[in-house]
Amino acid sequence: NTDIESAAVHVKSGHFDDPASRAGLAHFHEHMLFLGTDKYPKEEEYEGFLSRNGGSSNAYTDMEDTNYYFSVAPLDHSSGDDNDDNDESENDDDTEEEDGVSAALTGALDRFAQFFISPLFNPNMVQRELKAIDSEYKNALSSDMWRTYMLLKSSSNPKHPFSKFGCGNYDTLTNFVNVGNSGKEEDGGARNDLIQFWQEKYTGSNMKLCVYGKASLDELQKVVEQTFGDVRPGLPKSTSPTPSSSSSSNKQLFTTESTKYNNAVAFPPSSLSKIQEVIPVAEQRTIKILFATPPLDDEDIVDSRPYRVLSHLLGHESVGSLHYLLCEEEGLINDLTTGVGVDTSDFSLSSIDLSLTPKGLLKRDYILSLVFQWIRLIKTSLSSSSDLMAQYHDELCRISEMNFMYRENSDPTEYASSVAELMHQFEKDPSRVLCGNALTGDYNGEVAKAFLDRFVPQNCLITIHNSDAEKESQEKYYVDTNLKDAAWQTEKYYGAKYREMGISQEVIKKWQNEPIDPRLKLPELNQFIPTDFSLRCDDDDDNNDEVVVNGKNDNKEDANGSSKNEDEDESVPPFTPPKLIQRPSGLRLWHKLDTTFRVPKTHIRVHIASPSVYRSPRSMTLNRLYQKVLNDDLNSFVYDAGVAGCNYRVTCTPTGFRISVSGYSEKLTDLLDVVTSRMQSLLQEMKEGPGVHPALGQKFNKAIDNLLRETKNFRMDSPYETAAYNGRMLMEENAWHVDTYVAEMEGEIAEKNPLRMEECAMAVEESLFGRVKAEALCMGNINEASAQKVGEVIENHFLKQGVPLSDDEAPKFRSLKIPTKEEAIQ
Q1: Nearest-CA neighbor of 104 among 112, 96, 115?
Q2: How many whole angstroms from its chain centre is CA 62?
Q3: What's the mean pLDDT in 393-415?
Q4: Which of 298, 355, 303 minimizes the C-alpha distance to 331?
């Protein structure tokens, strides 16, 4: 049941297949495929048809994959009215409805299929698309993400395709020859290579198609056969060798690693055990540790997926974790994330990323030492307590199964795109395509140990981003990671400035043998995983439609504020709006019991409106700092709830504070109570000052550093974002400029009147507990009684202490009317 229909083709070919003489060809090919086919030669035919049918399209080129996808939104699934009257007459039959399949989807599939049957690769458009590729490349020159990624690629084995320049630019695509408008070149031409690339890679055996539509499977299959039937089949894929039947004790693990590309190893020992220091464009302080690991679709890994439990433990944020020690106790990092940074068919890179505070940057030797201590603690536990590791694994399996069982409908276009990719991954077992990676096999201790054994200094590449790397004053703080004797270099394509050196044997020995800090300990098992998935809409006493206002059965008010009397003749709509169930002074509480989607999840949204937040740039800055301190403080205590599917978010906006909690219903109101209680008690601790609460003072200083960096980095945003911001400055009434926020945190004003934790608490206290009003929505698997409890939490924590805010006092933001030309010149 869907109003949006979509389709995607996933081609098992990406920039790894670029010829050495034409870097970026796969990316260029992706662009050119949209520009006309034999059957539909007009350039705008495909995009225009989608647009007229409420749809859109896009594509991406990755290392070993290219994915094309589109969506349409048929106005009427039961008729052929979606046909475009402007289509060429000879193609009219192709957009007629086929046995219940909408004309929009049929027509889009027919146009889409021609990409893979008879593309034109129009020579008159080669020059324009080469410039488009070059523009993409040049726009990314100031992107630290792309600069770092290309530096990583240039650090790999040049004989492995990972080292290739995947984006391409005008020079690499033309071999430094000006193509001109004809598209012809002296050396054979980019177009000739495009055609050869398409002929070799774009065959049926190398592609997977997913169609997401409203019609039946038989009807969709018929349309697919009619539209895609002429795709060239290609050669059958070669089968992988049968695994050895030797005993498990003698079996070699990870047999697909480094076997695909002429046995070239992407990151051989000569590329590892190194430290790089990079000067970023935007201000940042980070450490990225990458470990060379086997491909994730290796037969030994794909079932038990050991990287999930290892990543879960490495990045855990509970008390006693590496994150807690570095962030909460010592204030050396802002964040720590773990996962898989790169995944290809013959290798992967597992990552640990740390965002550092200024203090943490100076203690990066100490941080790296603790990282390897944490890894050794997990290794020790894996060897000595396999049952505990199996329990962690089982917890993650339960959470994955739970999320799969109760997942809600996703965007049809994204879903089709992902399923087309999964069809390659599970080609030998199609039954797993729809569940994807949600279902995991049993824990395999041998595989987990072998995977974690890769997490050693000899097998890693450490990259440090440091905006002040060229300042010699910092070098005195580093011993293990001091690169002062290394020469600065510049990466060829994106221009990243960096230097590197090998990790000395002395440092390796230190990281491998240093005693483990006694404060580090593995997390407890997760107590927040829900067990009650019952639906409140199935409770007999919850299926009523009465609205209670101030304790009485009164007129019904809908979400738009309109009222209806009981005597009025009403027809019940298929989707009823939220109902106002409580309206005491200062609070409007809305409730909507889900009877449609029937999933055991609830969403609670609360808005505390206050005119104090945006009163001045200083007030806004203080309230934003409180948001950061609060989220930092809460993290370690509600981390397990987030892992188990219950999430919270507290955001400071110009109109006040927004509180959001969502997830599985069983313990959601308890999470809201924890969050709002801590919002209150945290202010009292902040008012007592950093002398009484030094750890809190440390968090406040860290919040200032982070907010200042983020605000200053706003100037590095893309041109269209900067233009939109400046447009807001011109059109909005009383909008503070970003420079006024910076001035509160650094410079002359900040030096004369520094931001203090006590002042922050007083400003936020006025915003949360002064003249305020609240509005809340409880929606999903929550009955009216539980929604009333949410109202009680809001009243007790915010409204009882304050004075109700009238509607006239509520913050409002107005945009100025743009004058006409005549008005402007008067």
Answers
A1: 96
A2: 17
A3: 91
A4: 355
